[in-house]
Amino acid sequence: MAKNPDNQVSAVRKTKHGTALTIFFTLLSIVYVMPIIIVVMNSFKRKAYVNRYPFKIGTGKMFVGLENYVEGIKKTEFFNAFGYSLFITVCSVAVIILCTSMCAWYITRVQTPFTKAMYMLCLFSMIVPFQMVMFTLSKIANMLHLSNPVGIILVYLGFGAGLAVFMFTGFVKSIPLEIEEAAMIDGCTPIQTYFQVVFPILKPTAITVAILQAMWIWNDYLLPYLVLDIKKYKTIPIAVQYLKGGYGSIDWGAMMAMLVLAIIPIIIFYIACQKYIIEGVVAGAVKG
Q1: Which of 2, 16, 254, 283 has its CA 20 to 30 A from that of 263?
Q2: Is the pLDDT confidence value at 288 over 50?
């Protein structure tokens, strides 16, 4: 059987098109990864050479090994800051997932003007710039004595609720109501139905929300700086700032080293859970 020349030409064009896209996105990914590579390279240089030769690999007299890491850990009290960041991130993400998933379930299943207004308020909170509320937020947080690692969890709940409720609501709409009715017939209370039936089904979206919220909270600088009493409690982004000395002097070597230590945990967490992001987003958007 003779081959169709048009099909052959089309196949060649698709191959060339796919190759070109592969090369383009490979180069683009290198551009995005390059800043991280530069930070890692400079974390092993003497601070005098970081500004002078930022794109060179530290060798010879430029290389200082782990000296920057040791110095940075001492100056920033890194492990204390790591503990506060870990506590705030883990607890905030857990509270956000629990409260927003229950809220989304209630909004979806109880169709009243009140729940519709609540949903619209959650969506509205996503588009309000933080700069509009940061002064009143810091004032109210101070009045309510939220300037501590436990109090800031409530603040993060308020800021993270909009996106989380939106994603959970889209997924809850895809859950057949008959499953919950069967649980009710079997004698489950609403709370039991939620934890034993609904929440396990929400796992893909819950993991997606956890990843997005954890990356935001772990790297957040402005909100802890405004809310926390930074004389007592410093998260990692705030602690790194204290490597800046008087008259604008900065220990660049130690700062690069602390940035590397700061990004390692969240990169590991993201790589371990990245496959759930698309799964959760598609489940909440398409099925809903």
Answers
A1: 283
A2: no
Angle between helices 151-172 and 203-219 (to 10 degrees): 150
Question: What's the pTM value of the predicted model, to 2 decimals?
Answer: 0.82
Q: What is the mean pLDDT of the chain?
A: 83
Which letter, b or e, does each residue of 228-267 get, where b requires 16 or more Cβ atoms within 10 Å of its Cβ? bebeebbbbbbbbeebeeeeeeebbbbbbbbbbbbbebbe
- Which sign does the torsion angle of CA 161, 164, 169, 172 carry? negative
Q: What is the DSSP letter of 3?
A: P
Q: Where are the domains of the chain?
A: 1-33, 69-286
Q: Name the DSSP class of 175.
A: S
The two tokens of residue 167 are 């994603």
Mean pLDDT confidence for 53-79: 82
Q: Which residues contact 114 (CB under 8 A, 6 or more apart)?
A: none
> Looking at the domain that runs over 69-286, which CATH code has it been given?
1.10.3720.10
